[in-house]
C-alpha cells in the first residue's frame, strides 16, 4: 500500500499507537504551528516498527533558526522536559512531552523531503513492503535489543559499511 507520509491522515487508520499520535498531533496543533517549516513525521512510528521507547520524530526545514527558536519557545516551552539545542552544523533539536509521549523536533535548512530522516524512512518502508511480516518482527526484535533502526535493517539485509549511507543505496527487489 502506498502512503503519502507528508500528510498525517494515514495515522487515523493505523494501529493503536499511530491513532494516538494522530490525536496528540491534532489536539496540540503541532503541524499547524510548524506549518511554515514543512513538518513531516518520520521514524519508526509511521512505518509501524516502533518499540515502547520510540519517540515521535518531526523534521522541519528552517532557514532562520532564530525565528524557529522563538516559535518553539512560545509554543512548547510550557510542556514537561522541554529542551532546545542548536548545533554547529546549523541544526536544531527540541524535545518535550505531550501527555505521556516524547516529541522530538529536528530542524535544518535542508528540504524535509531531502533530509536523511525522511529518506531512510521511505527506504525502510519500501523494504518492509517487499518483505514478509517475519522480517518486520526481526527488525523490531533487534530494536528491542538496543540496535538502532538503520543498523538493524543492514544486519538483516547483509549490508556492510555505514548503515546510514548504505541503506539508501540498497535496491529493493
In the sheet with the most strands, the strands line up as: 1-2-5-4-3
Q: What structural class do helix, strand and pairing data support? A: alpha+beta
Cα shape:
globular
Q: How many DSSP-defined strands? A: 5
Q: What is the CATH class name of the largest domain?
A: Alpha Beta
Q: Estimate the mean pLDDT confidence.
A: 95
Percent helix: 40-55%
Q: What is the CA-CA span between the terminal residues? A: 16 Å
Taken in chain order, the helices and strands follow as HHEEHEEEHHHH
The largest β sheet comes out as: 5 strands, mixed
**What is the strand content?**
15-25%
CATH H level of the largest domain: which superfamily? Beta Polymerase, domain 2
In CATH, the architecture of the largest domain is 2-Layer Sandwich
CATH topology of the largest domain: Beta Polymerase, domain 2
What gyration radius follows from the Cα positions, in whole Å?
Answer: 16 Å
DSSP helix count?
7
Overall number of domains: 2
Low-pLDDT windows of residues: none
Descriptive overview:
The protein has 173 residues and is an alpha+beta fold. The protein folds into two domains: 8-112, Beta Polymerase, domain 2 (2-Layer Sandwich); 117-169, no CATH class. It is 41% helix and 16% strand. The chain is built from seven helices and five strands. It has helices at 16-27, 30-33, 65-76, 116-130, 133-144, 149-157, 163-169; strands at residues 40-42, 56-61, 83-86, 92-98, 101-108. It has a five-stranded mixed beta sheet, sandwiched between helices. A hairpin with a 5-residue loop joins β3 (83-86) and β4. α5 crosses α6. The mean pLDDT is 95.
